[in-house]
């Protein structure tokens, strides 16, 4: 737990602000901002001869794009650290599963008594107290609860994919609109350069209007990104929690169901 916050902080430092994933083959542009090489290539393809940074809007030259090897190495180290951490958590969960024994007989719990709502070992199952009762294997008893969790995971993942799709489409539409505005501005400059003072004043007026429209589109894009990122973060947290629940041993899952906490989780 002590390393969770620093790890999250490092992950934020190596996250591409365009694709919201780890920086892959990171490169820096003229303004100093860093993106994935493929994301930078997408910007250049969308904006043509005059690409601009999506964060600060400053133009940059394609030939000035430079790789950032230090960040690439940092990404590899973070991913390796997360794999090691996942392995440690898996080992701890297995140890916890092995330690879950019957308090009376110190045997592993294999059954669930539907009459008494208790977890039973083999000796409890054959005792006079429980032998007349209906007892099923823990995995079978836990299956309905596991299925409910998996159904919720499926819904949340589908919602996440929809948000990512809408965000990608919105990004493409805004970039296309920005490109169209820039083309219109170039056309206006070429047409009015040959005119008189009245035409030059009219040109400036139209340019100001286009600049305002461009600013509004850029601001709308930033708001869209902020809302999408916030919602994705919330869904990622819920998905992570439910994935953890779905991987729990059957005994622990049934114990949660017996205490009533599972019902509250399924209301998320």
From TrEMBL:
Primary subcellular site in the record, as a coarse category: cytoplasm
Domain RING-type: 16-57
Record has Glycoprotein as a keyword: no
One protein family per Pfam: zf-B_box
Boundaries of every B box-type domain copy: 97-138
EC number: 2.3.2.27
Similarity remark: Belongs to the TRIM/RBCC family.
Record protein name field: RING-type E3 ubiquitin transferase
Organism expressing this protein natively: Myotis myotis
């Amino acid at each position: 737990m002590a390393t969770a916050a620093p790890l999250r902080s490092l992950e934020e430092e190596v996250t591409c602000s365009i694709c919201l994933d780890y920086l892959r083959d990171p490169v820096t542009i003229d303004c100093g901002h860093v993106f994935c090489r493929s994301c930078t290539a997408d910007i250049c393809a969308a904006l043509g001869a005059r690409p601009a940074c999506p964060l600060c809007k400053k133009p940059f030259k394609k030939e000035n794009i430079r790789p950032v090897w230090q960040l690439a190495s940092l990404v590899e180290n973070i991913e390796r650290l997360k794999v090691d951490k996942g392995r440690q958590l898996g080992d701890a969960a297995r140890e916890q599963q092995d330690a879950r024994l019957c308090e009376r007989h110190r045997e592993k719990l294999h059954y669930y008594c539907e009459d008494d709502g208790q977890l039973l070992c083999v000796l409890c199952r054959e005792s006079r107290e429980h032998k007349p009762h209906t007892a099923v294997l823990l995995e079978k008893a836990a299956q309905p609860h596991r299925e409910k969790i998996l159904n919720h995971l499926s819904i949340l993942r589908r919602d996440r994919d929809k948000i990512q799709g809408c965000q990608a489409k919105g990004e493409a539409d805004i970039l296309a609109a920005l490109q169209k505005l820039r083309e219109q501005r170039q056309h206006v400059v070429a047409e009015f350069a040959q005119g008189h003072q009245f035409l030059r004043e009219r040109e400036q007026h139209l340019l100001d209007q286009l600049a305002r429209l461009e600013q509004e589109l850029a601001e709308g894009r930033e708001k869209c990104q902020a809302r999408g990122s916030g919602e994705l973060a919330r869904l990622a947290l819920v998905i992570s929690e439910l994935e953890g629940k779905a991987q729990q041993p059957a005994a622990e899952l049934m114990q949660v169901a017996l205490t009533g906490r599972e019902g509250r989780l399924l209301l998320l």
